[in-house]
Automatic annotation (TrEMBL):
Primary localization: cytoplasm
Gene Ontology cellular component annotations, sorted alphabetically: COP9 signalosome; cytoplasm
Organism: Setomelanomma holmii
Domain of life: Eukaryota
Classification of source organism: Eukaryota, Fungi, Dikarya, Ascomycota, Pezizomycotina
Keywords from the UniProt entry: Cytoplasm, Nucleus, Signalosome
InterPro entries on file: COP9_N, CSN3, PCI_dom, WH_DNA-bd_sf
Protein name stated in the entry: COP9 signalosome complex subunit 3
Amino acid sequence: MTADLVTVLLQFQPESPELKQRRDYDQAARSFVSQLSNISASHWSKGADTPQDVLAVLNPSVNSIAYAFALRHRITALADKRSIPDTLKPGGATWNKLVLFLETFDPVQMRYAGQEWRKLVDYVEQIARATGSPGLAIAPIRSAMTRLDSTTGTFTSTHLSFVQLCMETRSYAAAEPILDNYIHSLPSKIPAAVREGLEYSVPCADVASSGEYIHQGSGHSDKITLADVQEYYLLGAMAFLGLRQFKKAQQLLEHVLIAPSNNVANGLMLEAYKKWVLTSCLVGANDRTIPRTANAAAVKNVKAASKAYEALAEAYTQLGNLPKLKAQIRAGAEIWAEDGNDGLVSEVLESQMRSYVSRLSRTYSAIPVSNIANILSGSPEEVTQYLDTLIKDGYLNARIEQNDKANTGAVLRFYLDPTNGPLAKSEKQQQQALFEQTLRTNILAEQVKNADYRLTLTKEYMDNLRRQNKKQGAGGDAMDMAWDDGLDAEEDLMTDLH
């Protein structure tokens, strides 16, 4: 039976001339997945760990669908044992095969084997956790996500489990490549009939968006709820806070606050709002206005429960009034600690101190460190070391000079010309920064364009268009909507997210 199984598994050859047409590839892939799904579990284990082992015969990057099925059945059989066998542990033969597959599979083939893909991704995390090394699952999962969808822009349950894993292991930098990508789609309920005959009609096509092949029926994700999306953004913001990338954190926190709600705020929104108030101070946003798309009633609820944070932010905006800010911090010490925000509050105080020193450049070209020490309530030696750290970390375009002859001690001297000093940027560096920003803007614009296209496929859009055409009456030729007749009414995509 092993030879017969290998023959079956090698039937689908993606580079075969007969499969050059997308429709032919699509039909063959679907048929192949259906065929493998009907093979009993006992057949997959025959010949294991022998020269005829299917995992040794198949190439994970070429025979990806077959390899995914074989590997999933192999791990399932091994996992049924009471203890994890050595071959499944990190460094073991089967573990290495699993990692290799997640890093090298053919992404087009995995569009057709979503359930196998997700199970293998889940397995790598489960094994890593069971062996006490959850961090070892981060790199393979990230590879699997980016190979399936290079933009990782269609949200899946793997997004949430991945960022949870990164936060648990404090691997903030490891999460950044995923968090930096815009989420442009949620797994939709658009039936295959709607896509029939359109440009993005089959999963193997060079689709404009991963939302065309990652949907609620593809198997790549568990069911998504609003809380899942909010938690992802909240944890992502916390990862950026850990990396001291406060502007990115602020943006993700706003994503939590503008999520749809029925005039009621949940706990995730409350936690996000408290962090958002503090983070807004860190990015220098004196105008703490939540985007207008947020639900007004829900925002009112979270504000009422965050008065201590509002008072702290108000004290922060009174530039130069460090004593008041410190008093507010001391008064709410128990609140910050209970909410787990004491570290963020310390950052706010540190930010105010940096802002005070930075604003001195507007008035002075040079100032004795002893004068600064009087305001910051520290010794000249401590403040000198503090200022030196600010310069090295890129917060100040200045230098410290020792002025022993004038008997005034150290002096902080600012570079008034931005082309001089430690923060000076060359013209080439400025052009590179502009180029990178332009590239990010173009990517986002393309994703918005694709989202608009997918919107035209929804029944809600068609119903609205039909109503508009009726209002116009005989004023022009109405669009022929006959192709949409007979489709079952689709449930609103966000219904399950309330």
